[in-house]
């Protein structure tokens, strides 16, 4: 067990050194909007849509008053723009009516918002409020299993196992590191094991 924990820590030390030098914190409303827009699209499209939307509606108060057709046009790059536009305006209305225009800083409050699941809630808590939580998305779930850090079948199981097995100092930036690693090297298909910095410690490596 001790040897396995040492392996996990070594893997994470290498990946964190390579992929993150500072774990950012941003304005909670921006993180919430960006994470909702990020569903089923690329980082580039998310960034473009977030920038366009918040340049015109930088607060919940302003977004709550927005014309849905105009919001759809602003976020078109993110895909599913009709669904996302209505959801964002609905969320903004709730933030204004129930939270004074502020984003709630609790898991319970965030999960009560339409379209907000555990990943989105944890992204807001981690990157909007600086909390030590682990946001589990497809990259985190897939790669944590591939590396043998967890043995799980659902993102919820992955989150629980990571919190048990990974040192707290890794939690907040875990998602950032694994997304970058998953996009560049540990891809869903045809992973680039030959250039992977932790290949020698990976039980799934195609180069063993």
TrEMBL record:
Catalysed reaction equations from the record: Hydrolyzes mismatched double-stranded DNA and polynucleotides, releasing free thymine; 2'-deoxyribonucleotide-(2'-deoxyribose 5'-phosphate)-2'-deoxyribonucleotide-DNA = a 3'-end 2'-deoxyribonucleotide-(2,3-dehydro-2,3-deoxyribose 5'-phosphate)-DNA + a 5'-end 5'-phospho-2'-deoxyribonucleoside-DNA + H(+)
Top EC category: lyase
Residues involved in [4Fe-4S] cluster binding: 186, 193, 196, 202
Pfam families to which the protein is assigned, alphabetical: HHH, HhH-GPD
Cofactor binding, per record: Binds 1 [4Fe-4S] cluster.
One GO BP annotation of this record: base-excision repair, AP site formation
Listed Gene3D superfamilies: Helix-hairpin-Helix base-excision DNA repair enzymes (C-terminal), Hypothetical protein, domain 2
Highest taxon of the lineage: Archaea
HhH-GPD domain location: 37-184
A molecular function GO annotation: class I DNA-(apurinic or apyrimidinic site) endonuclease activity
Cofactor: [4Fe-4S] cluster
Keywords carried by this UniProt record: 4Fe-4S, DNA damage, DNA repair, DNA-binding, Endonuclease, Glycosidase, Hydrolase, Iron, Iron-sulfur, Lyase, Metal-binding, Nuclease
EC number(s) per entry: 4.2.99.18
Stated role: DNA repair enzyme that has both DNA N-glycosylase activity and AP-lyase activity. The DNA N-glycosylase activity releases various damaged pyrimidines from DNA by cleaving the N-glycosidic bond, leaving an AP (apurinic/apyrimidinic) site. The AP-lyase activity cleaves the phosphodiester bond 3' to the AP site by a beta-elimination, leaving a 3'-terminal unsaturated sugar and a product with a terminal 5'-phosphate.
Family membership: Belongs to the Nth/MutY family.
Entries under PANTHER family matching the protein: ENDONUCLEASE III-LIKE PROTEIN 1
Protein name as catalogued: Endonuclease III
Gene: nth
